[in-house]
Amino acid sequence: MRLKPNKLFFQKDEVMSLPVREEIETKYKWNLQDIYLTDDDWETDFKWVESQIPNYKKFEGQLSKSAQNLLECFNFDNEIGIKLERLQLYAMLAKDSDMRVTIYQAKDDRIRTLYSNANTASSFIRPELISIPDSQLLEMINNSSELKIYNHYIEELLRTKKHTLDKQREEILALASDALQTPYNTYSLFTNADLEFPSVEDDNGNYIQMTHGRFYSAMYSKDQGYRERAFKAYLKPYKDFMNTFTSLFNGNLKTNIFSAKVRNYSSAKEASLDRNNIPVFVYDNLISTVGENLEPLHRWANLKTKLLGLKNLHPYDVYVTIFPESSEKEYNFEQAKQLVLEALKPMGENYLSSLKLAFDDRWIDVYETKGKRSGGYSSGTTFGVHPYVLLNWTNLLNDVFTLAHEMGHNMHSYYTGLNQPFIYSNYSIFLAEVASTFNESLLLDHLIEQSQDKQEKLFLLEKYLNNITATFYRQVMFAEFESIVYGRMEHGEALTADTLCKQYKEIYQKYWGQIMVVDKEEEYTWARIPHFFYNFYVFQYATGMAASEVLAAKVKREGSPAVNNYQDFLKAGSSDYSINILKRAGVDMNSKEPVLAVTKKMTQLLNEIENLIY
């Protein structure tokens, strides 16, 4: 069984002027009756799953005895899994529609408990399959027409067999799992709940206490003095508690290194990437190729410094816009839908008709209302039910890009659900951001091509450059830092606070070039990045953007053949390894091509900006 992770968002303070849900037109609210007609129908399925979970016992110890036993177990497990996902989707969406409604909070809690019970009851399946001799297991699969669909599932099971321990040691690791989460859990509580930031004078002359949210907002202020004050105030507690952060950071590294060694991996990096069968070369190739092509980022840093009228660039100058004139243009939801449809015309009528179906059949919850979860997400694949999208529309250009981004995820999940059996009806994180950034790329290209206003075009070009800077270069910089510190610890080096700060400064300077003044506070930034506790996660943002850049260019250049290949990618789910799925779509992530596609795109955008302003 699998519990699909929800994307987490902080609930914003409720604003009294917000409408209640009943005041929103029905067409702008998602239709949960596509999942269950009534709450009573949800309860019926819940009780059915609850009553069926004990029946897992009848398969325990029986899987090796016949192909029929194996097939019946798989079918039963799938039936439970399909209903669990449907139950979870309904509970999650109902809860997120209005988080003040306790009945749906309770349903969400109940389904998590039910998932846990099902996972416990079905936990024998994997170790029992692994205990069957390979030749016997493959014979059972290949000699049954109904079991052949599980070929890739069994291939993956056997591939990871050498890293699966005996039952006793697996139980010990399972018992230790909560303890091994202590560094991250403590870090999360400390930085989100206990850390106190100093107060600063903002750009309106008011004294405010710095927070995570106010820091990000301050970095976009036109007032450089306020940006500097906010920057220093925000990083002060990380500096003050540097020894604590160093201990937590090192503790996290040590737990992942321990787990990798226990499972017979050569490194923590190899262990992390092996979950999706990603070669370590893909990670290392990304870093080395970007390292050889930092000139576009250096060029952008120099241009930004010049246009801001500064002598040098500081870390707190990176986000402020230099072309603000068109940033206030508004788009209502109807205009945004049309804009997205126009931008995605290269994808052909089949894709557009699927988008229109989502727009017209209430797959999207559009407007902010009292009690509604903030942020935005696509719900992912739920077998037998179309995916849903949550938005909180404010008529800004960013909302248009959020719509395009989430509909990329939505179409990925929709096509996967239509074309894959339940066992392959999900896709890896390595693939997830390809479809979303693909849509954003086509939207940005469309807006830039259609714009007749010089200032608007400059603003859009800057937005594209900022996307590349944040999603590509910054994430590769993080990935390189992560790779270096793990490597140093695995070779027996002690990572002190001074060592980590010095290492982070060197990498930051390398990426941004000599025009960047790396303020002392920036050296402590590694301590505030929660992704460093996610174990070689961030590189996937960069690889996703790189892959999508190649695919978007192919679609625009080659037309129907590339569109067909891309749609096959959307349909593939987890029916093959991520690297293979992308390769069939036209992207070889073992090569430099996708990485260079992004750096070349940045050079093209910089040329366009300079042609407009000089």
What report would you give on this structure?
The chain is an all-alpha fold. It has helices at 39-52, 67-97, 102-121, 125-131, 134-142, 151-159, 167-180, 182-194, 212-218, 224-240, 242-262, 268-274, 280-291, 295-307, 333-343, 348-360, 397-419, 429-450, 454-490, 497-512, 539-558, 560-571, 578-585, 593-613; strands at residues 199-201, 207-209, 364-367, 377-378, 389-393. The strands form two sheets. It has a three-stranded mixed beta sheet, covered by helices on one side. A two-stranded antiparallel sheet has the order 1-2. A hairpin with a 5-residue loop joins strand 1 (199-201) and strand 2 (207-209). Helix 8 (182-194) packs antiparallel against helix 11 and helix 22 runs antiparallel to helix 23 (578-585). It is globular and about 75 Å long.
Would you spell out the secondary-structure blueprint of this structure?
Layout: H1 39-52, H2 67-97, H3 102-121, H4 125-131, H5 134-142, H6 151-159, H7 167-180, H8 182-194, E1 199-201, E2 207-209, H9 212-218, H10 224-240, H11 242-262, H12 268-274, H13 280-291, H14 295-307, H15 333-343, H16 348-360, E3 364-367, E4 377-378, E5 389-393, H17 397-419, H18 429-450, H19 454-490, H20 497-512, H21 539-558, H22 560-571, H23 578-585, H24 593-613
Parallel strand pairs: 3-5
Antiparallel strand pairs: 1-2, 4-5
Helix pairs in contact: 1-2, 2-3, 8-11, 9-10, 11-12, 13-19, 14-24, 15-17, 15-18, 17-18, 17-22, 18-19, 18-21, 19-20, 19-21, 19-24, 21-22, 21-24, 22-23
